Amino acid sequence: MIADFGGGTSDFSVVRVGGPGGAQVLSTSGVAIAGDAFDARLVDHVVSPALGRGSTYEAELGRTMPVPPWLYSNLRRRHHLSFLRSPKTTALLDKIRHGASDPAGIARLIHVIGDDLGLPLHQSIEANKRALSASAAAPFAFDHAGISFAADVARADFDAGIAEDLAPINEAVREALDRAGVTAGASSATGGSSLVPAVRARLAATFGPDRLLGGDELTSVAWGLAAVAANR
Fold this sequence. Notes:
Shape: elongated
Oligomer: single chain
Order of helices and strands: EEEHEEHHHHEEHEHH
């Protein structure tokens, strides 16, 4: 079995189940890419444009300047939003707001930062990602006191957005199998990120669709960690 331990990383272990010693970890591998990285892609393509990303503002001497992209990179992780709550950033946003080509979007950005809405924002992203796992399209909606915006999201666009994240995950799976000296055909796969259809398709291509275990994707995370701990 190769289990995805989930969270902010995709950590894989090849575990032999049963036998005299019980569960035995044969190898481990992983990359710092998983559900959080997929959420960040949705922030980039769905949320940030509604908050003024890609727009401009009129600066000193009549110069037209792009709204700094680094403002939006801090939205990609909910706990990074606090980095924007500084007097220097507040002054910059006030200057941008007065000359913005997208004043409504910048006003939303200021509201999200000022009210520290990182947690509810990412809860809405998570809900959209879960809905896309079951449907070809799903609406994204964020509705909080004083701010609301929505967008229609197609799973095909989400899959395209996370495509570059999937290759390292594939490589980590292959590395774990190679280190264990076992073949994909002799293994099964499970884990939290395997609920994402694009990830599941990659795992099915590696192991075969009949080798993907269902129903315990999230509990397998705890099971895999316990198996690693028991073998240390």
